[in-house]
Amino acid sequence: MSYTDEQICTHSFDTPEKHHGAVSPPIYQTSLFAFETFEAFTKAQSAERENYVYTRGVNPTTEILERKLAMLERGERCKCFGSGMGAISSVFLSLLQKGDHVLFVNTIYGPTQELVEHLNRFGIEHSFTGEEVEADVQPNTKLIYVESPGTMTMKVIDLKSISTIAKQHGIITAIDNTWSTPIFQKPLTLGFDLSIHSLTKYIGGHSDVVGGAVIGDEELIDQISKYGFQLNGSVMSPHDASLILRGLRTLPIRMKQHEYNTLQMINYLKTKEEITSIHHPSLQTDNPIVKEQMTGFSGLLSFELKEGAFEKVALFINQMKVFKIGVSWGGYESLINAPIKRDNASNLEAQGISPGLVRLSIGLEGPDLLIADLEKGFQAVQTIKSY
Ligand code: PLP
């Protein structure tokens, strides 16, 4: 039987007797599971990734979350981790070996890049590419790693064509699908092997938990569970799994609201002369891929302030009262941030990121207060012009 995303997010899939009818499944806050006999223990331990033996293995609460995430992504299996970076590093550590090459497509989350730079010392190479993916495949490319949309300029990449190229060359494909969530994009249905999430963002949704997940077929997830999860040990706490399950119950409805609010904010931003461009996939109407592979748009967007520099960006951001200044995104609350620092403008430009780029994560407050906030920012930067 196939289920809709709304059903997957809300249905318990358990018999009512299983948890005494509890509508919210219990938190198995335990590090280990005890056995009646030594024989039963050794039998369970011989297949530790299928049996409840130790929470750095399988835990019943986390397993419910894993089942739901696998269903949402239309994948066979999911493994959850203590953070998005735990999930990403587990993929790299499990699938790569000395002499392998990783090809990155699009702008990539900074710490993911730092991780692979670190892996250089273990003989793992990497390079970056834009649209010309096939031309940049190397004989030793083992993994093509994509973010689409990217999370700075929100550029969308053609996932089907990448997975087709990768299959022709026998290369594994992985995507960081955090921006869209499985509600708006299902990369496994477009031929990708692995879909990765920082659950810290929309899926958790309440900015009170850090977590990660990888979804793919049985074989790849088993390999990742063994080497990346059990041996690397980035474990999700069962309590955190329960918080993320709570987030999941409202994910489809929250995503619709984030989208609605964001489109209204974009309409407002379009009226501002102080902005040179706005970045959000909803505006990439000339790109047919956007419509083909995405069914909606989340609330992370960016815009470029005219003649943006550190002082101007700081003045703008410092006017905010409702937008919180901070890292991360995808929660119920609106956030503002910018990649500019006092000394990195040329680095940003080399990556195609404007020094005046301001990033907004549009929350669930509704546009009125947010627009009032931004209005103050735009008024303040006008004063800079007249100096
Ligand atoms: N991927 C993207 C696109 C992110 O923005 C982040 C965090 O900001 C991560 C992965 C890492 O996730 P976590 O912070 O849960 O480790």
Which features would summarize this protein structure in a list?
single chain, 5-stranded mixed beta sheet, Aspartate Aminotransferase, domain 1, binds pyridoxal-5'-phosphate, alpha/beta, 2 domains, about 375 residues, 7-stranded mixed beta sheet, Aspartate Aminotransferase, domain 2
Shape: globular
Strand content: 5-15%
| Helical proportion, percent range | 25-40%
- How many domains in all? 2
Oligomerization = single chain
Number of DSSP E strands: 12
Distance between the termini: 66 Å
Quick one: CATH superfamily of the largest domain?
A: Type I PLP-dependent aspartate aminotransferase-like (Major domain)
Poorly predicted sequence stretches spanning 5 or more consecutive residues:
none
CA radius of gyration: 22 Å
CATH class of the largest domain: Alpha Beta
Question: Main sheet, how many strands, which sense, barrel?
Answer: 7 strands, mixed
Ligand catalogue: pyridoxal-5'-phosphate
**Biggest sheet: strands side by side, in what order?**
1-7-6-5-4-2-3
The helix/strand class is alpha/beta
Helices and strands, in order, run as HHHEHEHEHEHEHEEHHHEHEHEEHEH
